[in-house]
Design the sequence.
């Protein structure tokens, strides 16, 4: 069975419809989770246990730093098992955690970048 050819996109994977954008959203969710918690969202050397973790969904036990509820919501919706209900790229771009819309003061503080644009541009000037 040929899964890919340069003239045709993959439409099914192991009998399940394949949506490349939604697969990329899953991957971005894994990366975001790892960046904000310092841990992998699903991690086990036993494949059965790993699959069970994925089916149960993402949890935020013992993150290395606090994670805002808005960020948790974004990650949970990026890592939904059912790709049909997983966020699209456009929905991610409009999410309150990225836009700072309707966030509490505490959540806004938690989502601010560590390096501000002014300091990063001056840092780049001193390096060059």
Sequence:
């Amino acid at each position: 069975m040929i899964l890919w050819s340069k003239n045709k996109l993959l439409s099914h994977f192991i009998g399940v419809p394949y949506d490349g954008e939604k697969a990329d959203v899953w991957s971005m969710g894994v990366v975001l989770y790892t960046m904000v918690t310092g841990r992998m969202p699903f991690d086990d050397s036993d494949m059965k246990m790993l699959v069970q973790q994925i089916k149960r969904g993402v949890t935020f036990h013992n993150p290395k730093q606090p994670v805002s509820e808005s960020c948790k919501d974004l990650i949970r919706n990026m890592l939904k098992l059912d790709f049909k209900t997983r966020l699209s790229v456009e929905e991610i771009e409009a999410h309150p955690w990225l836009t700072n819309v309707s966030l509490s003061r505490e959540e806004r503080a938690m989502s601010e970048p560590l390096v501000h644009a002014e300091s990063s541009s001056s840092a780049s000037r001193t390096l060059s």
